[in-house]
TrEMBL record:
It comes from Acinetobacter qingfengensis. One of its GO terms (molecular function) is phosphoglycolate phosphatase activity. It holds the Pfam family HAD_2. It comes from the Bacteria. PANTHER family: HYDROLASE-RELATED, PHOSPHOGLYCOLATE PHOSPHATASE. NCBIfam families: HAD-SF-IA-v1. Keywords: Hydrolase. This is HAD family hydrolase. GO terms for biological process: DNA repair. One of its GO terms (cellular component) is cytosol.
Length: 219
């Protein structure tokens, strides 16, 4: 029997928003400004963490440069992410879930400033009952942002589902024994995602929409 969900919590980058390529480019640009090298794999591996945690993970050997690299990254990303937008089908999926009167939320490693900017860009503020950014809570995989979302919505953990493309998303949900869905079109590979025993793995937005809409059908 398909599990029923009243609350769907989405990661943003790599799950709803097609921004991974630009994040990697902007991280590499910022690193180069301060004579640091950064591979594609290393840059991808930290997407989903809060920005301070990103800097501490990627540049632990130059703590004095972390704040400068972070500012360079942020400036470059804002300037060059003009064409980043939702993955195809996301807008329709969110609208269909709302039509089923489901509560929607965002749990992201972005800063509040960065999240507000992309919510405005996609004109999607009204779709989400609550959004949590890493700068106002604890970074993934700490489950605090999920606990705050559950508290705000009043939905019990077993009636909620976390949807994400990284181990950080799935581990965060696993900490609370929350149902979780992995998407394979984002950052982390299938083998990594499977370690966290997702209830379902979606390979395309269409797969994700079909699963969530079936799971959210009326009781």
């Amino acid at each position: 029997m398909t599990q029923q969900f009243d609350l769907v919590i989405f990661d943003w980058d790599g799950t709803l928003f097609n921004s991974v390529g630009q994040i990697v480019k902007s991280l590499q640009f910022a690193a180069q400004q301060y004579q640091q090298s950064l591979s594609d794999d290393a840059a991808k591996s930290i997407i989903g963490l809060g920005l301070p945690e990103v800097m501490q993970t990627l540049f632990p050997h130059v703590p004095e440069l972390q704040e400068k690299i972070l500012q360079s990254y942020s400036d470059h990303y804002v300037e060059h992410s003009l064409h980043d937008y939702w993955f195809d089908g996301v807008s329709e999926m969110l609208a269909a879930l709302k039509a089923q009167h489901k509560k929607l939320a965002v749990a992201t490693g972005k800063s509040r400033k960065g999240l507000d900017r992309v919510l405005a860009k996609t004109n999607s503020q009204h779709l989400f009952d609550i959004t949590r950014a890493a700068s106002e809570t604890r970074s993934k995989p700490d489950p605090l942002m999920l606990e705050q979302i559950l508290s705000h919505t009043g939905i019990p953990v077993e009636r909620a589902v976390m949807v994400g493309d990284t181990s950080y998303d799935l581990e965060m949900a696993q900490c609370l024994n929350m149902p979780r869905v992995a998407v394979s079109y984002g950052v982390h590979d299938l083998a990594t995602l499977k370690q966290y025993q997702p209830n379902y793995i979606a390979h395309h937005v269409d797969d994700l929409a079909e699963y969530l809409l079936q799971s959210s059908s009326s009781h």
